[in-house]
Amino acid sequence: MSDARRNRSGLGRGLNALLGDVARDERDTAADGPARGAVRMIPVSAIAPHPGQPRRHFDEAALEELAASIAERGVIQPIIVRPHGHDYQIVAGERRWRAAQRARLHEVPVVVRDYSDSETLQIALLENIQRQDLNAIEEAQAYQRLLDEFGHTQEALAKAVHKSRSHVANLLRLLDLPAEIQARVVEGALTMGHARAILGAADPMALADQVVAQGLSVRQTEKLAADVKRGGTGGAAPRRAGFSDHTTGSADIDALERQLADLLGLKVHIAFHPEGHGSITLDYSTLDQLDMVCQRLSGERI
Fold it and tell me: Domain ParB-like N-terminal: where (predicted)?
């Protein structure tokens, strides 16, 4: 099979299919002894991170906590790698590898698989998304790489990562923002909802500065952006977060639906009654999406 054909087909397999081979290899090893793809111990120094890893920001406190756990119990879940020259390249598990280095381990357990570039990027992307480890900009950049380097469509990409097509499209639009605003999203000063509200503003940097300085919520940012578009100055900023104007119109409901859709990657519909009660409907297209929602609602790690 050619590399191009393998790259095209790899996206549709999904994380469970790609990693299912690893689980089978581990079972075979337990029953029959060492086998190809079995868990093995290799030197930490023989492993290198993948340069295309979608995740760029690693929380220092969480990394130190993991390093302390690894120092006490070792690396419980093997790192997935692929051959790279005379050594190995990480496919999934860079955070564990970094923590193992901090714990001063000399060897770590790995499973070696022959993944293509497209499969490697897909696995790294899905692993981080399902664990909610990527910020919006990192996720958007990973999607863009899959589109640019491997020729995938937005629709095929959305199916592969179990997200709605609108979620993928909305994330990709964030890459049109100035680099300074993207950096604020990465740092956590602005959320994806803030960034989407700022998109299309005549002076996005000025609006972003105002949002950060005044601590505006996403709904307040959307109202401010709309006011500026209508010709207002934006000087009369909405009330600070935590204060209500006691009105809830369709614009607010639409904004909340968009926020929830961005968070879950699913289409969300809110039926609101003036007396305060209502219902929320989530539309899913695959059982994997339903399973993801159930796990998130139950607090179970994916």
Answer: 40-129
